[in-house]
Write a structure and sequence with these properties.
The chain is an alpha+beta fold. It has 3 domains: about 100 residues, no CATH class; about 40 residues, no CATH class; about 90 residues, Roll (Chitinase A, domain 3). Helix 1 packs across helix 3, helix 2 crosses helix 3 and helix 5 packs across helix 9. It is elongated and about 90 Å long.
Length: about 280
């Protein structure tokens, strides 16, 4: 059983989509516009049960966060949906559906999620990520990225002897792409002939990156390169300057990442203080 808010989240976009569908039936007179929601008191009263106005405001905000525009039409649609939800809940209470064990379990889970999310929001309200922290993280990422990015291919094998065999085959005139497709253990790059696309060195294992950046364009490693994944033979195809994005272009992503880190730290602190068996 979905909560009323989740039910609304599903039914409102479907309603908007349905209004755009063509019909083969003869044109009919336009339906009367939805009744505007009252502006004071309860949103509506259904069989003596008042629907709080705050519920409408909450759903409207949710719809706006998904791209909807606040309008009288939207508010009338939300009001109708909330009335429908109330009717369904009343019917579920009357028939006993609301008391089923699986329904109660989902209600408990939803309640726990709502309260937990509220606690996270409260923690972040008192421990918000500052502009200075975002700037610092941006500068750290920019420094770590460096000023160059590299396009390389590699063949990954399990042993040093296998890597030496690959190097020998390449020196005899073997094509790097073909050998990578036949022998590499890296399932991600193997179908592409070992192509790793453009990357900055920090995206690779340190031993791999150190060997790669020492290569001249068009050259390969003469000895096997060992990383935590195995042994590599690396071919450097090209090098170019990094086009690092401006802070305003990545600010939302940086803020989201810092918020996630802060929430993780908060949870670690709570776990450290708790007795979890």
């Amino acid at each position: 059983m979905k909560s009323p808010i989740l039910f609304l989240a599903l039914c409102l976009p479907m309603l908007a989509f349905a209004q755009q569908l063509p019909t083969k039936e003869p044109a009919k007179p336009a339906a009367a516009p939805a009744k505007p929601a009252p502006t004071t008191g309860p949103l509506a009263t259904v069989n003596g049960v008042a629907i709080p106005r705050q519920r409408l405001e909450m759903v409207v905000r949710q719809q706006m966060s998904r791209g909807a525009a606040d309008s009288e039409t939207l508010r009338a649609q939300v009001r109708d949906a909330l009335i429908n939800n109330e009717l369904l809940v009343q019917e579920a209470n009357r028939t006993g559906v609301a008391k089923k064990a699986e329904v109660q379990a989902q209600i408990d889970l939803t309640r726990q999620e709502v309260v937990a999310n509220a606690m996270v929001a409260e923690h972040m309200r008192t421990s918000a990520v500052s502009d200075a922290e975002i700037q610092k993280e941006y500068e750290r990422a920019k420094s770590q990225t460096g000023d160059k990015e590299y396009r390389a291919r590699h063949v990954l094998v399990a042993t040093e002897d296998e890597a030496k065999s690959v190097i020998a085959d390449l020196k005899k005139g073997g094509k790097f792409e073909e050998i990578a497709q036949k022998r590499s253990l890296d399932e991600g790059s193997k179908p592409k002939g070992g192509d790793l696309d453009w990357n900055v060195p920090s995206n690779f294992d340190k031993a791999f990156a150190d060997a790669m950046v020492k290569l001249d364009k068009g050259k390969m490693t003469e000895t096997p390169v060992r990383s935590r994944y195995g042994y590599h033979v690396i071919l450097l195809e090209d090098v170019r300057a990094v086009s690092f994005p401006r802070l305003d272009q990545v600010r939302p992503q940086i803020q989201q990442s810092l918020v996630a880190q802060r929430v993780e730290a908060y949870l670690r602190d709570l776990r450290a203080k708790a007795k979890v068996e």
